[in-house]
Every structure is written in C-alpha cells, then in structure tokens.
C-alpha cells in the first residue's frame, strides 16, 4: 500500500512509523486508520523488523480525531462509517436472539480507534510510543496498547472525551486503568483536562520525559537494546503473555501458559544459543523467526467476537 498520512521506515531492524499530517497536527482520520492497520500487518509479516517506534511529524504527536466534519464528526448517520475499511465485523448484530438475551438487537458501527488499538495489542513486536508533542483524544488512547511510552518535555496530553459529550474510546476503558490505575484513569477522564509531560510521568502514563531533540534517539536506544539482547520469538511470546494475563483473575492462568512456554522453549535452538552465548561471554545470535518458529500452542486464547 502507498501511504499518504504516515511514513514507514526501517533501519537497524527498527521500524519507525510517523504520523504525517503535520499541517493538521497529525489529526486521525479514516485514511490514517487504514494505513496504520496495514503498517502493523507489514510489521508482523516482516522478520527483519524487531521493534517499532510510533511518533508524529512536526510539533504534534496527534491532536485527536480530525474534526473537519464539525458537529457531525461522531454521528455515523451523517457519513459513511469507515468507508472501505470494513470486514464483516465492522457493523454486526448479536448472534443471540433478542428473546434469549433479553436485550434489543442493534447494529453497531465499530469504533475506528478501537480497531487500531486492538491491532496494536495483537502485534508480535514490541511497540514504543515517542510522544513528541500534543497527544489528545485518540492521539493518546492509541498509545495505550504500546509497550513503552516516552514523552518530550513539551508534550501535552488529554483524555478530553467527557468535555466533548463523548466517552473514552479505542478500548481505553480496558487499557488505561491497567496502565495507570483506576483512580488516575478516572481523574483524567472526568476532568478532561490537558496536562503536561511531568504529570503524565508522575501518573505512570509515560516511562520518562526528555528534551524534544533527544526524544527519538531515546526511543531508538530502547529499541536497539531489545534488538541487541533478546530473541525475537521470546519477545513475541512475552508480549502476548504479559498483556493477556492482565485480564485473568488467578495466577494459575499464568502458571499454565508459563509451563507450556518453558517446556517448549527449552527444546529450541534459541535457548541453547542464549545459554551458550552467556557461558562463552559473547553476544547471542538468535535464528528463530516470528513468522516460522512460533510454538503450535499459539494462540492459546480465544479471540472475542465483536457483536
């Protein structure tokens, strides 16, 4: 796909995805959604890519949804909903008859931000957000399924939905409390205030704050550390295990998958190489690839059906 709203670059086995509508403060629109979904498909299909950085062009990370449609921006009855992006689940009816469920059946158009965050959640590569400026609405909720967030010292962040008569989107009611805790999540959403990078750091939303000119290099060094030190299949499995365990109600769920993964990986060449490299005091040369060497028990979870 030819991209018009993002840049996609690969160097040192690190993919940098840059939101590239600088004249609109990288506001999120339907084309950007389509291109980001495609970009993460490419990331997962490309073994050369070992880590991903997402940032913004110009002075903003992402100013939120493009409000060019004015007051009807979120009224799907006034426009074609996510035209051309669809799959059968985009607008779906409950499969359970109304008389059995006790609820009225209705068709629901899927939230575009949620489609993106669920795609990032499913990514097999670690994702780092380099928040280089304002990140508001979907501009910040899109970063929640990313694994590490670093921010420029001039970043301004806001979960502004309640001030627009909306509710948090992009599955952020699941992600945000897990990242920062329920009380902090609710305070930021209820107040809808715009806050700075230092408050984001104190609240646990970002890992660290850096001068604007040092931000990307900081993100790249984090990505290089992952590429340099860790086996790609191990990283992919760790990402899956950590994120999915957030929804479990007992550590036995983790013990079950830990046990399967340790038993499987103990027989793999990457584990033998990792131990040999340690004993021989040399860098490891891992050969396992995410596209070919994942264990047969992946996925061990059930993908929830949208309805």
If you had to describe this structure to a student in words, what would you say it looks like?
- This protein has 307 residues and is α/β, with parallel strands linked by helices.
- It has two domains: 211 residues, 2-enoyl-CoA Hydratase, Chain A, domain 1; 77 residues, Lyase 2-enoyl-coa Hydratase, Chain  A, domain 2.
- The strands form three sheets. The protein has a six-stranded mixed beta sheet, sandwiched between helices. Strands 7-9-10 form a three-stranded mixed beta sheet.
- The radius of gyration is 20 Å and the shape is globular.
- About 6% of the residues have low confidence.
Fourth-tier CATH superfamily name of the largest domain: 2-enoyl-CoA Hydratase, Chain A, domain 1
> Within the largest sheet, what's the order of strands?
1-2-3-6-8-11
List the helices and strands in order: EEHEEHEHEEHEEHHEHEHHHH
What's the overall geometry?
Answer: globular
- Integer average pLDDT: 90
Q: List the domain count as a whole number.
A: 2
Give the low-confidence spans.
81-99
Strand content: 5-15%
Please tell me how large the radius of gyration is.
Answer: 20 Å
Q: Helix/strand-derived class?
A: alpha/beta
Largest sheet: 6 strands, mixed
The counted number of beta strands is: 11
Percent helix: 25-40%
- CATH fold-type name of the largest domain: 2-enoyl-CoA Hydratase, Chain A, domain 1
Number of helices: 11
Question: What is the second-level CATH architecture of the largest domain?
Answer: Alpha-Beta Complex
Regarding CATH, which class of the largest domain? Alpha Beta
């Amino acid at each position: 796909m030819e991209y018009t709203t993002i840049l996609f670059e690969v160097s040192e086995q690190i993919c940098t995805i840059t939101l590239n509508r600088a004249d609109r403060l990288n506001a999120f629109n339907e084309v950007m959604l389509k291109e980001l979904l495609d970009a993460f498909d490419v990331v997962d299909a490309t073994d050369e890519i070992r880590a991903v950085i997402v940032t913004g062009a110009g002075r903003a990370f992402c100013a939120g949804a493009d409000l060019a449609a004015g007051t009807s921006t979120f009224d799907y009855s006034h426009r074609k909903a996510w035209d051309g992006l669809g799959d059968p689940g985009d607008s779906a009816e409950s499969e359970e008859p109304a008389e059995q469920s006790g609820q009225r059946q209705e068709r629901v158009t899927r939230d575009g931000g949620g489609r993106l965050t669920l795609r990032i959640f499913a990514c097999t590569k670690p994702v780092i957000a380099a928040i280089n400026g304002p990140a508001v609405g979907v501009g910040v909720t899109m970063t929640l399924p990313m694994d590490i967030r670093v921010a420029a010292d001039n970043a301004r962040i806001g979960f502004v939905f309640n001030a627009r008569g909306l509710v948090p989107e992009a599955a952020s009611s699941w992600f945000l409390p897990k990242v920062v805790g329920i009380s902090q999540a609710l305070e930021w959403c209820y107040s809808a205030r715009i806050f700075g990078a230092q408050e984001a750091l104190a609240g646990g939303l970002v890992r660290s704050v850096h001068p604007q000119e040092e931000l990307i290099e900081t993100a790249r060094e984090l990505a290089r550390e992952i590429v340099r030190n860790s086996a790609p299949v191990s990283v992919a499995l760790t990402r899956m295990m950590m994120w999915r365990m957030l929804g479990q109600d007992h550590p036995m769920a983790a013990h079950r998958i830990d046990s399967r993964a340790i038993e499987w990986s103990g027989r793999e060449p990457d584990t033998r190489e990792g131990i040999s490299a340690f004993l021989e005091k040399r860098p490891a040369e891992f050969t396992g690839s995410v596209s070919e060497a994942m264990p047969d028990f992946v996925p061990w979870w059930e993908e929830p059906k949208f309805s």
